[in-house]
C-alpha cells in the first residue's frame, strides 16, 4: 500500500525522538557517565559507545574528552629532573617534517663550535599538518604532541609562529597528557640509562684492570730486567734532537711561519669556495 | 633495446611492429608503443583481449632524469596507459608512448571515452596536445595560467629547492615569513598574448555553447539558455560548477568544471620524500584517509618490495572497512540531502560515523587526517579497550544501525519516486567511461578489486559483492547500504581472527630510497578504484607521484547521465556519484 514505507520511516524517527527524550529525562547522569566534572556547568564528556538517542555537547562549556593519542601542535619537553631541555638540535624533526614548518637554530659556544642544544626553535603552526612525524622520529623524546587545540588568533604572523619559549612545556605536563606513553617511555629511558651506566662501569673497571696490569708490568720491569737504554744514552739522544731542531731553524729561516701561512691560505681558499657555492645556490633558487 | 616479449599482448603480426620496446622489466612489464600506432594497439587490446577498462592515463616528464633506465631515450615526455579487464579480473597491461616536448598524440577517447578527463588533465599539466580530442581545454587551471606546472622546469610561487628537506631549516633556521619573499607583482606572468582585463571565459564546450535546432513547436516558443550551477556548493559537496544548457527545467547538455581546490598535490609529492607524502594523502579524499594511506603504502611496498606483518594486514583491513562504512553512511545521508530530505537522514546516517571516528582518533590521534599507515605496516598498535569497542560496533551496533537506515529509507515512496529510473546509464557505457566503484555495481557488474585482484589479505574473508540491476539513483543509494553490510561481515571476521604480533616491518622509515622503476598500485576505495602511479629514479623522492582518483574520473559520466533529466535530478545524480573535491581537484 502506498505510504507504508513513509510510515515505517517515520516510526524510526519517532523512536529516535523517544530515545533522546528518555535519555534526557531519566538519565542525565548516565549521559555524562565517564565524564569529568569541572564545576560551574563545565565538564569534559566522553560519549559512551552504546549511547542511544542524540547527544549534544554544549561547547565551549562542555568539551569532548580527547584520547591520549590526540595530536595537534608539537611541544618541546623541559626535563624537570635534569633541569635541561631534552632537545639536542640534531635536526631530525626538521628533516622529516612534511610541510617543513620546523626551523631550528643550533647554539654554538664563544669559539663558534656547535653545541648540542638549540638557541631557538620555531614551528609555524599555520603550516603544521599535525602528522606527528617529528615525534615519531625524535631519538631523544624531546618533542611531543600537545592537546591544546584552541589556538585561534587574529594574525598569522607572528602569533602563529611559535618560538621556543611558547613551545616548551615541563615534563609533568606531558606526563599528564600522555600517561600511558609516558610510563612506557620512562621505563625504557631508565633501562637505557641503567645499561649506559653499566657499560661505563664495565669500561672503567676494564680501564682500571688495564692500568693495574700495566703498572704491575712496569714494576716488574723496573724491578727485574735492566732498562733497554741507560739514563746516559737517553740524555745523549735528547741532546742530539735539540741540535737537529736548532740546525733546522738556522738554515730554514722561518719555515715554521711558512707552514702556518700555508695553512691559513688554504683555510681562506676553502672559505672562499664555500661562499661561492652558497652564492650559486642562491642564484639557482632565484633569490 | 632488448627484444620485447609481446606474446602476452596477443598482438597480430600487423601490430607486432607497433611495440618499440619494454620499460623497466624489474618491476612491472610495460610496453613502449609507437605514437602513431597507439590507437590500433588500444583497439586490439579492448576488442580481442578483453581489456575494457582504461584505469589510468597519465604523463611523466623525464627532463633531467638521473636513473639508468632511460640512458638512450631522447624523448622528454612519456604517456602511460594502464588497462584492466573488468570481466576477467587480474592485473594490468601498461603501455607507454614517448613523445618530444609540445608534440601531439592521437586521443584515446575514440576507443575509451573515459580518457576524456584524464587527457585534459595531461594537457593542462604537461602541455601535450591530444589530436582529435572533443573538448581539449584546461581543466584544473584557468586559461590565464602561464605554463604547465607538472613539468620539471616549472617552479611554484614559494619555490625553495627541488627536494625536501630544505637546507634553510637546520641548523641555521631563522624563521622567514614566506609570503614576504615573492610578492605577486614579480611572480605573476600570463601566457603570451593573453590579457587578464579583457579576458572573458567563453563557453567552449559545443553541446553547451550551441543551442540545438528544434522542430517547430506551434504552441510554445521556447529558448534554451546556459546556466551555471555553482561554483559554490551546487549540492553541498564542495566548490564545483556544472555548466549546463537547459530548456525549461530539462538539461540538454552538462559539462563539469572543476579545479577550485587545485593545489598541485602531485608537484608537492615530487618535492616530498616518500614518507612525507603519507599525511598528504589524508587530504585527498578527506572522508577516507585510511584507504588513501593504504593505497599509497601498497604502491610503495610493491615498488620497494617491503613485507607487511600479519597483524598489520588485519589492522589495515579493519581500518579500511570501517572507513568504507563511514563513507557510505556519509554518502547515503547526502544523497538524501540532495533529494531535499534535509539533515534528518544525514544525521541518522552519520551517528555511527561519530563512533567510528572516535575509534580512529583513539588509535591514530586524529578523526579524519589519520596518517596511520606506513610502508611495511601501521604505525601504532591498538590502545587498551579498543578491540572490545570495535567488536561491539561490528557485532551489535552497526548491523542494527544499518538495518534501521534500511527501514528509514529503502521503502520510502518519495525516495523511490525520485530515484527510480533517474540518471540511467548502461553499465557498458559506465565501464567505457572508466567509472568504477559502487556506480558500476549498481549497474549489475560485480567488479570489485578486493575480489578481482585481491590485495592485502582480502582473499581470506568470506564476503559477497552485492550488485543491483537498474543503474539509477535508487540503486546507487541502495548498493552503498548493501556494501556497508558486507563491510560489517568482513569486520566481524577480521576482528575475530586478528593475531598478536608485529605491526611494522623493518625498513620503511624516512630514509627510504625506492629502487628505480615504476609501479601502479590500486585498491578498492569506498568511492571506486584509487590508484597511485609512482616512478622512481632511486632517490629519496618520487620522480612521479600521480593519483588516479575515483571521484575525478567518475565525473566522466556526469554529463551523459544528466542529459534529459531535470535540474533537480542533476543535483542528485552528482550526489550519487559521491565525489569529494579534495580528491577531484588534487
Q: What is the general shape of chain A? A: elongated
CA-atom Rg of chain B in angstroms: 24 Å
The second-level CATH architecture of the largest domain in chain B is Orthogonal Bundle
- Derived from helix and strand composition plus strand pairing, the structural class of chain B reads alpha+beta
CATH superfamily placement of the largest domain in chain B: Cytochrome-c3 Hydrogenase, chain B
Strand order of the largest sheet of chain B: 1-2-5-4-3
Unreliable spans of chain B are 1-6
Query: Helix segment count of chain B?
Result: 22
Distance between the termini of chain B: 37 Å
Number of helices of chain A: 9
Helical fraction of chain B: 25-40%
SSE order of chain A in H/E notation? HHEEEEEHEEHEEHEHHHH
Total beta-strand segments of chain B: 15
Q: Rg of chain A, please?
A: 35 Å
Provide the CATH top-level class of the domain at 74-177 in chain A. Alpha Beta
Which chains have the largest interface?
A-B, 53 and 61 residues
* Biggest sheet features of chain A: 4 strands, mixed
Mean pLDDT of chain B: 85
User: In angstroms, what separates the terminal alpha carbons of chain A?
Assistant: 75 Å
Would you mind describing this structure in some detail?
- The complex is a heterodimer of chains A (287) and B (586).
- Chain A is an alpha+beta fold.
- Among the domains of chain A are: 56 residues, no CATH class; 104 residues, 2-Layer Sandwich (Alpha-Beta Plaits), CATH 3.30.70.
- In chain A, 51% of the residues lie in helices and 16% in strands.
- In chain A, α6 crosses α7.
- The longest helix of chain A has 45 residues.
- The radius of gyration of chain A is 35 Å and the shape is elongated.
- Chain B is an alpha+beta fold.
- Chain B has three domains: 125 residues, NADH:ubiquinone oxidoreductase Nqo5 subunit (Beta Polymerase, domain 2, 2-Layer Sandwich); 43 residues, no CATH class; 321 residues, Cytochrome-c3 Hydrogenase, chain B (Orthogonal Bundle), CATH 1.10.645.
- Chain B has a five-stranded mixed beta sheet with strand order 1-2-5-4-3, covered by helices on one side. A three-stranded antiparallel beta sheet of chain B has the order 8-9-10. A three-stranded antiparallel beta sheet of chain B has the order 13-14-15.
- The N terminus of chain B is likely disordered.
- The interface between A and B is large, with 53 and 61 residues.
